[in-house]
Amino acid sequence: MRYISTRGKAPALSFSDVLLTGLAEDGGLYLPETWPSFSKDEWKALRGLPYPELAARVLTPFVGSDIEGATLRRLCAQAYTGFDHPAIVPLTQVEDGLFVQELFHGPTLAFKDMAMQVLGQLFEHVLAERNSHVTIVGATSGDTGSAAIEACRGRDRLSVVILHPKDRTSEVQRRQMTTVLEPNVTNLAVEGTFDDCQDLVKACFADMPFRTDMHLSAVNSINWARIAAQIPYYVYAALNFGAPDREVSFAVPTGNFGNILAAWAARKMGLPIRRLCVGSNRNDILTRFLNANDMTMKEVIPSLSPSMDIQVSSNFERLLFELLDRDADACARIMTGFRSTGHMDVPAQTWEKARTVFSGLALDDGETEAEIKALHQNSNYLADPHSAIGIAAGRKFREAGVPMIAMATAHPAKFPDAMVAATGIHPALPVHLEDLFSREERYRTVPATPDAIKDAVRAAVLSNTH
Ligand SMILES: *Cc1c(COP(=O)(O)O)cnc(C)c1O
C-alpha cells in the first residue's frame, strides 16, 4: 500500500515512512492511494473476534507488506494490554436506539490512547528494523501529550519531548504527564500559552538542520497511522449491531476531525454506515460548515470540553480531497486560500456531498452541563463534557431502525469540576491512577523561545542516545 499527499506534490510513501514522517513535504496530509474494501463475508469473518485481533485484521491492508501479519497481531495485542476493561471498547445503551461506545479505558483515560498505544508499538518495531532512533516533539493542551508520553515511556528508540503551557492545563492532565519519570520522557512547562507551544514546535520542525540532526518526528492527529488505528472500533461497534447486514450511524465529539474521519474511512471500506454526526462546543467551525457552508476561522473560546477547543480542524483536508474527487490542485488552492483569508471556499456541490453523510450539532457550556445532568438523571450514565456533546448529537440525528452509536471519548474523572457542577458526583479515578496526586513530578520550566526549546531537545536526545 502506498500513500499520496492531498496536495499532490510530495512523493508517495509506504506505511512505515508515512508513520515516521507525519505531515507531507508539500504541506498536505497522506491518504492511501486506493481504499481497501472488505466484502460482506470478510466483515462477517471479523464478528466475535477479540478487539486486538480485529484491530490487526482491519489494519492489515493499510500496513501492506511493511509489517508481517503475525508481527502486526502481536503489536496490536501488546498495545491493548494496559486497558482496564476486558472488552477494550465496551458498548452501553443509554436510550431507545441510542448507544455509547466507551473509548476511554486506556492508561490516560481518553480516546487518544486507542491509536497512540498502537503507534508506540509500531514506532518501536519500525525503528528496531531500521536500527534508528527518533525524537518525538509535540505541544499539548492536555490529552495528546499524556497519551503520547504513555505510548513512548521506556522505549529505547524513542525520546519524547512534550511542551505544555505552564499552569494552563488541568492538574490531572499535568500530573498524567509529569509523573512519568522514565529517562526518555521530557516535560517542558513553557511560560506561555498553548498557541506559543504549537508555534515553538513548528519552529523546531522548520529548522531543517536541527530537524535532521535530532531525527524529529510527530505523533499529532495528522499522522495517518493514528487515523488508521481508529478505524477498528467503528468496525467492532457496527458488527455488534448486525453489520454488514444492517446499517448503523455514529455520533462523534469532534475537534481536529481525526476520530470522525476514521468512521468515514470505515464507510469508504464498505461498512454500512448511514450517518456521521459531528458534535461541537462553542468552537463550532465544523457545525457551521455543515449547516451553512460557513467554514470561517474564529478565535478559540475556552469551554468545558477543552480537547475540542480548536480554530481549525486539520483532518478536514482529507475529507475535502476525497469530496473533490481527489483533485489535489483544487485541494491545495482551497487550503491555501483558507490559511490566508480565514474562510474556506468550498464549492456548493462539494458541500452538498458532505451533507449527504455528515450532520453537525453544537452545544454551549450551559447546554453541555444540562446534557450531563439529564443523562445522569434519566439514564444513570455519567458522561464527561466531550462525550455528552457526542451523545446529544446522536440523539438529535437518530433515525428509527438504525442504531445510533455515540463515541465516549474521555473518562468523567478527567473533568471532576464539570461533573460535580452538573451532577453533584465526584467520579473516582481508576485504580491505576488513584495515587496520581501523591506521585513525584518532574518537569522543567522554560521560556517561550525557540532557542530554549531546542537546547532542551538537544539535552534530552544526548542523555538518551549516549
Ligand atoms: C482529542 C479529543 C477529541 C477530539 O477528537 P478529534 O479527533 O480531534 O476530532 C474529543 N474528545 C476528547 C476527550 C479528546 O481527547
Observed structural traits:
466 residues; Rossmann fold; 5-stranded parallel sheet; 20 helices; Threonine synthase; EC 4.2.3.1; Threonine_Synthase; lyase
Query: Which band does the percent of strand residues land in?
Result: 15-25%
Number of strands: 16
Per the CATH scheme, the topology name of the domain at 91-107 and 226-423 is Rossmann fold
CATH class of the domain at 91-107 and 226-423: Alpha Beta
Strand and helix map with partners:
Elements lengths: L1 E4 L7 E2 H7 L8 E3 L7 H5 L6 H13 L5 H11 L11 E5 L2 E5 L9 H19 L3 E6 L3 H10 L5 E8 L5 H8 L6 E7 L2 H13 L1 H7 L1 E2 L6 H5 L2 H10 L7 E6 L4 H11 L4 E8 L4 H8 L2 E2 L19 H8 L4 H14 L1 E2 L3 H8 L2 E5 L2 H15 L5 H13 L6 E5 L7 H8 L20 E4 L2 H16 L1
Parallel strand pairs: 5-15, 6-7, 6-9, 7-8, 8-16, 10-11, 10-15, 11-14
Antiparallel strand pairs: 1-2, 1-3, 4-5, 12-13
Helix pairs in contact: 3-4, 3-11, 4-5, 5-6, 6-7, 11-12, 17-18, 17-19
Characterization of this structure:
The chain contains 20 helices and 16 strands. The protein is α/β, with parallel strands linked by helices. It has a domain at 91-107 and 226-423: Rossmann fold (3-Layer(aba) Sandwich), CATH 3.40.50.1100. Strands 4-5-15-10-11-14 form a six-stranded mixed β-sheet, sandwiched between helices. Strands 9-6-7-8-16 form a five-stranded parallel β-sheet, with helices on both faces. A hairpin with a 7-residue loop joins strand 1 (2-5) and strand 2 (13-14). The chain is globular and about 60 Å long. The model has no long low-confidence stretch (mean pLDDT 95). The structure holds pyridoxal-5'-phosphate. The site of pyridoxal-5'-phosphate (PLP) has 17 residues, from helix 12. The site of pyridoxal-5'-phosphate has 17 residues, from helix 12.
